Each structure stands twice: as structure tokens, then as C-alpha cells.
Amino acid sequence: MDINTNIQYLKGVGEKRARLLNKLDIFTVGDLLRFYPRDYMDWSKTTSVTAAPFDANCCIRAVVNHKPKGAKVRKGMTIYKTVATDGEALMDITIFNNKYAAESLEAGGEYLFYGKVGGNLRRREMISPMISPVENGLRIRPIYHQSAGINSKAIEKLVRQAYETGKDYFTDYIPQSLRDRLCLMEVNRAIYELHFPTNEDMLAEARRRLIFEELFIFQLGLMKLKGNRKESTPVTIERDFTDEFLASLPFTLTGAQSRAVRESIGQMTSQYTMNRLLQGDVGSGKTAVAAALIYTVVKNGYQCAFMAPTEILAQQHYKTCLKFFKDTDIKVSLLTGSVTAANKREVKARLKSGETKLIVGTHALIQDDVEFNNLGLVITDEQHRFGVKHRGALSSKGNRPHTLVMSATPIPRTLALMLYGDLDVSILDELPPGRQPIETYAIDTQKRPRAFNYVKKHLDEGRQGYIVCPLVEEGETDLAAAQEYSENIAQGFFSGYTVGLLHGKMKPKEKEEVMARFVSGEIKLLVSTTVIEVGVDVPNSVIMVIENAERFGLSQLHQLRGRIGRGQHKSTCILITDAQNEAAKKRMKIMTSTTDGFKIADEDLKMRGPGDFFGSRQHGLPEMKIAMLTDTAILNEANRFAREIIIDDPDFEKEENKSLREGIAHLFSGEYVMN
Ligand code: ADP
Ligand code: MG
Known about the structure:
Elements (H helix, E strand, L loop, with lengths): L14 H9 L5 H5 L5 E4 L14 E8 L4 E6 L2 E9 L4 E7 L2 H6 L5 E10 L4 E4 L2 E4 L6 E4 L8 H14 L10 H7 L4 H9 L4 H29 L13 H7 L6 H14 L6 E6 L5 H14 L3 E5 L3 H14 L7 E4 L5 H13 L4 E4 L13 E7 L6 H4 L10 E6 L5 H7 L4 E5 L10 E5 L4 H13 L3 E5 L13 H10 L7 E4 L5 H12 L5 E4 L12 E6 L7 H8 L10 E5 L5 H12 L3 H12 L3 H4 L16 H17 L9 H10 L8
Helix pairs in contact: 6-7, 7-22, 7-23, 9-10
The site of adenosine-5'-diphosphate has 15 residues, from helix 10.
């Protein structure tokens, strides 16, 4: 048996079982052994019946008094009962419907019972505990993710079986010298300890080793990709026209903006294609950076394309660009689905001839019949909202043009550098001066009328506002439902004001219409679920009320709040919640104390815990089996040593580095998509 052996060769695995295992992505013995436990049950420490905690899992070693007696309470339901003792106290054991478990217990036999202890102080009870004979017991046992038809225990058994016939299944990707320096366990030992830990310390060491391996290989892979993807481009940007552009701007760039412009232009004037992520909180001025780059690229004789995920955003960028370039000879056009057919033809013709220098649009830009004369720079706003296959489509209309991807999703700096290790990153971590900070308050529902009065006051002054509700239709709970909610307030408290409604079940066209009416100022108060566009800029809206604020994650609250505070008027965000749990309270506290997106993202990561980032594949990165984004200490260590290796032996030619190639190929197998 080796790691490539099909799992069907394991005893007890037939075709049907194999299919169930396949569903868990287990095809080979190697996959099985790398199917790490998601948690553990500690059967190694036992507690006495009297000392057992209420309502937490524990393990009790006890002798069974008599063979459990079954009583059929109704059709299909038999309850088995017995009593066990640890020598000091008695405990009832109740087993529902599990004849097999009940019959495994013998009078006078000593067993380990694992589960929650209930009952009362006088008479303690375990209901349907897990049972193990003492001789197999006393250890930390793995819990695996299970799927219908195959449970954790069955997987544990298969893993054991694999270890009965072999143990050194894997080659260690990490060079011996590095392992020695960092005191890392050998890989096979680590994997074994992860499944069947000797004790807690060994488990911790095994985890550290495997997390390190994963992050280390991951970073090496990204560094390699980045290196390999340095491709030369025929787009020659020879002169930097930034100063000329800045002279026409009504404001001066922030330090962060200047840095981003400088970094980008520096790269475009080298002979290599720029591939850059521009990350900045809402309102940090990404568009101005984009405009500066467009100016220089156009002045060097090339065309630029600027793509946004929705019609509204495209129109907004179009208007902004018209403003930026109004005193220049740069011709700007718009291409979206709603442009009339005749107009489209004209726009396309001018684009093809090279007359249009900047085209702004939606994914209408990637249609086959859109042709450029000489495309030099592609800018994409909120790229993650485009399908993966759309991402490269616009660039392929030119000859290796430069690309800039803009995103307002705040990811902590170190993580951004890692996640986008194959892109260069510029970060706008500074807001333009003179922004009025948004004031945020958290209140309970009793104070809602006061909040509404406050909203009204602003509407009366000619401002606009949002009310955000979490759900559309009346749900199982008392969540404010946007639909009913908006009707209620439109007829009640806010009668006489134009109230609009925006929710996820509306057709894109309907949404666009409502948004357009809000942008134009016709709608004064917009009731909405979370679908308000990220990036929509309505500087006149200065107030936002968020109902059931506890239902939103931190980053989401931050994104929502970013819709206000965009103009010269002071803005206020009011979070309404009655939630008393600690997590909700903590989120409200963070929201009311800072508006710094990166800080909030950091907190969000900490609070959300494992799996969220790597788990979802939206980044197009390989999935981590064990590492989490919160393992920052190991991450930094891995980063440091990966760099060392890349500098010392970039092609992994040294004998001890050779297996790294295999490790990278394995981790990045197939699915890695490059933007
Ligand atoms: P983002 O796209 O990052 O959310 P925008 O580019 O839309 O931000 O900029 C938000 C607003 O700030 C715009 O009205 C823009 O004109 C203005 N702005 C951008 N940079 C500056 C600056 N350096 N000084 C003053 N105002 C700025
Ligand atoms: Mg923007």
C-alpha cells in the first residue's frame, strides 16, 4: 500500500463506500491520511462521576452494574437503561435505540463513557454516551468531518488500517536542515500524531509542523508564480505625465495615493507587464489613482479600459472620468448594456479606430465585437465580482496590457501580501484630508423612535439616508423584513417622504432603476437589504440606520457604513440591536470606536476564526487543510524561510530542495486560477 493506492483496496471499502469517501475528496490512501481530524475527544483524562462538569463533554471510567434492559416505549423506539459506578458514585446510563451499543456492555465490565453528564446532583446520568472498553480507551481520539453514510468512527478505523500495513507513506517536503533549525517533526510522525496523538503536547507539535508545511509550500508556490509571470510587454510607457495630470486636479493626492501612482508608473515604464492590486477602503480615492495612470498611459499613445461590475458603478466611474479629463483632449466613452444599439455601434467604431482613448463599461466590454486599436491598460473595479473566466477576457483584447485591479475589501496588510502574492499590491491606507469622520452609535430598539426623528431632521435639511434590514420576507424570527418594513414606515413615520426599497430578489434592472432614483435625489430614504452597491457614491446621503445590527459581520457593517460619509456633510450611522451576547456587543463596540477598515478587518478575522478565508475559494487560491489565516506567527515564519529558499535556490535544484517542487505541484494541483 502506498499513498497512491486506491481506497477500494482497504478492507471494508467497496464501491459504495468508496463513492462516499470520494465525496469527502478521499480517493487514495494518501488522501485518507491527509484527511485531518476536525477536532478531538479527550478520552485520555477521566473524571469521577461527582466531579463531572454539567453540560460539557467528559470521559468517565466506570463499571457496569447489569446488562442494560431494553424497554420498547413506542414503535421504533427502544430505551436501554443501566447503572454504572466509578467506585464512589452511581450514574445512570441511558441509551436510545442503539441495540448494538447496549449489548456491548457486560455486567461487571469496565468501560469509558464519553459525553455530557446530566441529571441532578443526587442522581447523575449520561444519555447515549460514546462507549469504549478501557483497554482501547485512555487516549485522545480524532473526530473527522463526516458525510451521510460514513461517520467519523468509520474513518478512524480506515486510518488505523492504513497504519497497520505501513507508516512512512510520505516524503518530507521540508528540507532536513530547515526542520532541524525550526525543531519541526518529521512529516510521517506528524501526520500519525495528528490522527492518534500521544498527548496534547505532541498534538500541538504535529499541528505546528503541518501548518508550517502548508503555509511554507503555499508561499513558495506564490513566489514562484510571481517570478515566472514576469513577462515582457510591448506596451512601452516612456514618459511619466503624472505631474501634468496633477496640475489639473482640484486637490492634491494623499501620500498613499502618490505612492500607489509612483509604484504603478515605475512598473509600467519597465519592460514588464504590470499586474497590480490597488486596495483601499471606501472613499480612499482609488479612482483618482486610476485616473492618473490612465492619463500617463493615454499620453504615451495607448488606450485604456475601465470595467465595473454593475451599470450604476460603470456610469459613476464614467462621470468621474469625464470630470477628471474635461480639460484634456482625452476622449471618454461609455459602453454598457443599456446604451442604445446605434450608440453602441458608434462607440465600438471609435474604439477600434483609436479615437476613443478611455472606455468605461460593464462586462459589455468583453463581448467579441469590442475591439481596441492599442490597449495599454486594463482597470477592473471589484474584480472578485466578475466570473473567473471573465477576468482575463478584457486583457486579451490587447497585446499584454498592464492591469490594475481595484478592491475595497479590506484585508489586513500582511494577509493581502500573502493572498495576492502573485500580484503586486498598493495599499491606500490614508483617507483624503477634510473627511468628516462618521459618528456611529449603537442603540436598542426602544430608542428607535428617537433615531427616526433624527433621520427625519436630516431629510428635512435636504439630505438622504439609508435604512438597512437583514431579510426580505417575514422570516421565522422577528427580524425586520425589508418589504413590510418599508411599507410600514412609508405609510407611518415617514409618510410624506419618498421611500424606496431595494432587495436581493429584485431583478438587476429594477435594482438599477431604484438606485438611479436614489442617486438623482428623488428617493429620500432607501430601505434596503445588504445589496446596496459597494462603491456607489451618493455624497448627499448622510445617515444610515442598520436594523438587527447583530446579524451582520464586522466587515459587512463596515462596508455598509462606507455608503455614507462621502460628502461635505457630517454623517451618522445608527446600529439598532437588542442582542446581549458578548460577540454582538463586541462588534458594536468596535464599530462605534473605529472607522479604520484594516483594523476592523483584523478584528473580524480574529472573531470569525477558522476556515472562512481559505475555506471559501473565491480567491482562486488552493485550499488549506489545516492552516488558518489566524496562524499569523507561523505564517510570518513560513514567509521568512520561503524567501530565504527562493533567494538561495530559486529553481529548487539543490538535492534537499528538490521535493519542494513536488509539494508545490501537489498543493496547487489543477485548480489554481490566475487572474
Ligand atoms: P474609492 O473609489 O476609493 O471609494 P473615490 O475614488 O471614489 O474613492 O474617492 C472618493 C471621493 O474623494 C471622490 O469624490 C474623490 O474626488 C475624492 N478624492 C479622492 N482623492 C482625494 C484627495 N487626495 N483629496 C481630496 N479629495 C479626494
Ligand atoms: Mg470607488
